[in-house]
Amino acid sequence: MFGRTFTRAFSTLRGQHILSAKQFNREQIEHLCRTASDLRHVVSVQGCSHLLQGRVLYNMFLEPSTRTMSSFHIAMLRLGGQVFSMPTENSSFQKGETLEDSIQVVSGYSDVIVMRNPQQGTPHRAAQVSRVPIINAGDGNGEHPTQALLDIYCIYRELGQVDGLTVTMMGDLKNGRTVHSLSRLLANFKIKQLIYVSPQSLQMPNDLVDELNRRGIKQAACNNINDAIAQTDVLYVTRLQKERFADVNEYESLKGSYNLDANFLKQAKEKMIIMHPLPRLWEIPTSIDADPRAAYFRQAQDGLYLRMALLAAVLGRV
Ligand code: NCD
Question: Whose CA is closest to atom 1 on ligand 1?
Answer without folding.
Answer: 277
